[in-house]
Amino acid sequence: MNKKELLDKIYTELAESLNITDTMTVEIINSYEAVGKYLGNLEEELDIQIYPQGSMGLGTLVRPISSDEEGDYDVDLVCLLKNGSYLSAKDIKQIVGKRLSEGERYKSRLDEEGKRCWTLKYPDFHMDILPSVPQLNQSTIFDRKNTEIRLTNKEEEGVYSDKISNPKAYREWFIEQMEVTFLKRREIVAKKRNVEIEKVKLFDVRTPLQMAIQILKRHRDIMFSGKENKPISIIITTLAAKAYTGQTDLYDTIETILQNMHKYIEKDSSGKILIFNPTVSSENFADKWEESPEKERAFFDWVRSAQTDILQNPMEFAGGFGSMKNQLREIFGSRAVNQAFEVYEKKNLNDKNIENLGVNSIGNLVNNTAENAVAPLKKHTFYGH
Fold first, then answer.
1. Which of 55, 98, 250, 348 is at a distance of 20 to 30 A from 9, taking alpha carbons?
2. Which among 218, 283, 311 is positioned nearest to 3, based on CA atoms?
């Protein structure tokens, strides 16, 4: 097994260790469905619907860095008042906040009003709820099902203004960027669970693009721990999805993304940086870079560091397996790396014991398949002295 193949396997296990657990996924889903039911019962005429957006909806949510951190899962949700298109920006926001503050179950969890969201704090995660209504004049460049929404933006002066977004269209665009690998892996999950393929959600599937984004976000979190100007997830996710060209190996996916994501950052005639929302042409994800140039510098510093830390240094490293583990701990955190290596080593031992691991003609460890033409490693019985 060469270094690239080894890193591909290690990074795959690392992505799994970073991924949200099935238990936590169920807890979060049950919690936001309960919120939706509560709000809907109080405002039946508004026909309230809650659904995930952002990392939770895309299957790119990342576990906390350390096991003792609480509230570190940032769960983004859309609270759509389906019959509320007539409401003002202020009313959209206040109706949801008022209802949450009146509920015995939620008023103690309710944080102060945010710029766009109301936040509920749970022991292991916090839930950012985005009040919104359907946008009557649909104008997106991608929308095919009239899923554009109007949300509220509270300015510092206390003035409420309208903003446009389309999380459902973004999700569909994200799937299209990895359509072939997504459909194949979705089918595998459906067969494994013995369910209809439509019941397999995006966050149930593990594609190279999703895993690459999780690894890149963890690298960013470690690099900017305790620092300002951390690159925001929507920029990383959008540029990664645009740069992805269907790779099936995780190392190749990360390499392609880091080498090409800068190509999708544009500039207008005045030199302003543009990273457009692919589904809402009026939204520039890099709008704060103009007023805060340090955010732009921080992003490109991070890209260079990620190229060095994730791609170059591990390939050039001449130390042993344990030294590689120590190096990756500094980049991704001890807990995630320890878990990844533990799972990788267990799988390797199992492959060896069932004679599914061997040595090829040039001395590399490979899976024992016909194409690899290997001499299998025999199961170790631990007999003798």
1. 55
2. 311
Query: Rounded distance, CA 316 to CA 301, Å?
Result: 21
Q: β-pairing, 365-367 with 273-274?
A: unpaired
Work out the mean pLDDT of the chain and round it to a whole number: 87
What's the distance, CA 288 to chain centroid? 22
User: What amino acid is encoded at 176 in this protein?
Assistant: E
> Which pLDDT belongs to residue 355?
55
pTM of the predicted protein model = 0.87
Q: What is the spatial distance between Cα 172 and Cα 176, in angstroms, rounded to a whole number?
A: 6
The torsion angles phi and psi of 272, rounded to 5 degrees, stand at -70, 135
Q: Is 11 exposed, middle or buried (0-12, 13-18, 19+ CB in 10 A)?
A: buried
| Contact in structure between 36 and 27 (CB atoms under 8 Å) | no
What does the pLDDT read at residue 356?
Answer: 52
CA trace torsion 129, 134, 135, 139 (10° rounding): 100
Report pLDDT for 137. 66
Residue pair 59/202 in contact by the 8 Å Cβ criterion: yes
Report the pLDDT value the prediction gives residue 324, as an integer from 0 to 100: 87
308 Cβ partners below 8 Å, 6+ apart?
A: none
Q: Which residues pair with 76 in a beta bridge?
A: 53, 128
Which H or E run includes 279? none
CB 135 within 8 A of CB 148: yes
- Name the residue with tokens 């060095």: 308
Distance from C-alpha of 217 to C-alpha of 44, rounded to nearest angstrom = 39
Q: If you search the block for the tokens 């920006």, which residue do you land on?
A: 89
How many CB atoms are located within 10 Å of the residue 294 CB? 11
Average pLDDT in the 333-352 region? 87
For residue 143, pLDDT beyond 80: no
- Tokens for 310, please give them: 């994730």
Q: Over range 76-83, report the average pLDDT.
A: 95
Averaged pLDDT for residues 154-176: 92
